[in-house]
Amino acid sequence: MQTILITGGAGYIGSHIVKLLGERGYNILVYDNLSSGHEWAVLFGRLIRGDILDFAGLSRVFNENDIAAVIQLAAYISVPESIQQPLEYYLNNVSGTINLLKVMGEYGVSKMIFSSSAAVYGIPPHTPVNETSELRPINPYGRSKAMVEQVLQDLSNARDFKYVALRYFNVAGADPGGSIGEGKEDAAHLITASVRTAVGKKAFLNIYGNDYPTRDGSCVRDYIHVEDLAYAHLLSLEHLLEGGDSRIYNCGYGHGYSVLEVMETVRRVTGAPIPVRQLERRKGDPPELVADTKRIKAELHWRPLHDDLEDIVETAWRWELKYQSKTLK
Ligand SMILES: NC(=O)c1ccc[n+]([C@@H]2O[C@H](COP(=O)([O-])OP(=O)(O)OC[C@H]3O[C@@H](n4cnc5c(N)ncnc54)[C@H](O)[C@@H]3O)[C@@H](O)[C@H]2O)c1
Q1: What's the CA-to-centroid distance between 145 and ligand 1, angstroms?
Q2: Are residues 214 and 230 in the same domain?
Q3: How many separate domains does the chain show?
Q4: CB of 146 closer than 6 A to ligand 1?
Q5: In this predicted model, what pLDDT tens digit does every residue of 261-301 receive, in sequence order?
Q6: Residue 314: domain span
Q7: Rounded to whole angstroms, how far apart are CA atoms 288 and 1?
Q8: Is position 24 within any domain?
Q9: Quick one: pLDDT at residue 326?
Q10: Which among 169, 72, 71 is positioned nearest to 117, based on CA atoms?
Q11: Catalytic residue check, 163
Q12: 31 and 118 share one domain
């Protein structure tokens, strides 16, 4: 049986994709250096500890397995860190993916789903932003994703290679069954930080800027439940395995919530007060970033099941309670 290789599959998003594909009967191989992922998060398939920068290590994996397609999530993901350490980000995110593509080429594997990001849009002139908008990333993290997208496009022009680049907006929530969720101690995303404040792990929540031209002065973002995002990967995989062409899709819900609205929801769901610390605007935060999602709905018939902020917060909260009470290794 052919195998789906999931690089970075022990991480937050990857582990939800592994679970969904595993439940659908796919044969899965996870390749992850565990720099931020966890062994406990891999619920299906086999985990190989390895680095995408290791050409020989990757070659062994392709030599020993019949790989039909690769889902490439392995990357560093912090915008502020990327500004401090651009070389590490370009090396891991760009060179790492090129290395993987080279090995794929040597073994005749010609299908990849790539984790891109809304960060490729930078500060778009209008929102909702669609896939044809110009890419104007404003930090090394966003540029690393845009560079890989360019490499994928060039490669698909040069030879028989097909890819789906999924531009994730703000990914949040956890497995509704409570078996997996965000496991990074330093995860900085708003909903994770809020529920960690609710469980008392953080003393307060930082809010950046209160004078944006939005309905309440705080930034507006499009939050997508990680399980709906995993489903977008399943559909993208089926598309490629059925011989479909290269595509680029936004992954969000097409509407946004402000930071204050998210916090109110977290307060309501958790019953915790969530103390906040109001700070100045952060450089490079667009006031509003919302996905135009018409394309993925029309072409892949993607239909979200968790398009509800309470649902997202509740699953994140349930996971956080469990995660705090257990030592998961
Ligand atoms: N979380 C979000 O909101 C979001 C938004 C847009 C895009 N993304 C992208 O989605 C992907 C997954 O993000 P996540 O939130 O699950 O992060 P994560 O850090 O939980 O997952 C990344 C995984 O990749 C592994 N990894 C990193 N470098 C590696 C390397 N050189 N070799 C092998 N494994 C390596 C890590 O150990 C980790 O398991 C990333 O590519 C990220 O850029 C995430």
Answers
A1: 12
A2: no
A3: 2
A4: no
A5: 999 999 999 999 999 999 999 888 889 999 999 999 999 99
A6: 190-221+254-325
A7: 45
A8: yes
A9: 62
A10: 169
A11: no
A12: yes
Q: Pick the last residue of a domain from 205, 232, 251.
A: 251
| pLDDT tens-place string over residues 240-262 | 999 999 999 999 999 999 999 99
Give domain status of residue 181, yes or no. no
The residue whose C-alpha atom lies closest to atom 23 belonging to ligand 1 is 8
102-123 average pLDDT score: 98
pLDDT digits (tens, 9 = 90+) for 15-67: 999 999 999 999 999 999 999 999 999 999 999 999 999 999 999 999 999 99
Looking at the domain assignment, is residue 300 inside a domain?
yes
Q: Which amino acid is at 296?
A: I
Catalytic residue, chosen from 76, 90, 141, 223, is 141
For position 206, which CATH number holds? 3.90.25.10
244 Cα–ligand 1 center, Å: 26
Tokens, residue 191: 């909903």
Q: Which of 6, 20, 31, 36 to mutate to test ligand 1, by most ligand atoms within 8 A of the CB atom?
A: 36
Task: Tell whether ligand 1 has an atom less than 6 A from the beta carbon of residue 252.
Answer: no
Distance between Cα 273 and ligand 1 center (Å)? 31
- Report the predicted TM-score, pTM, of the whole model to 2 decimal places: 0.97
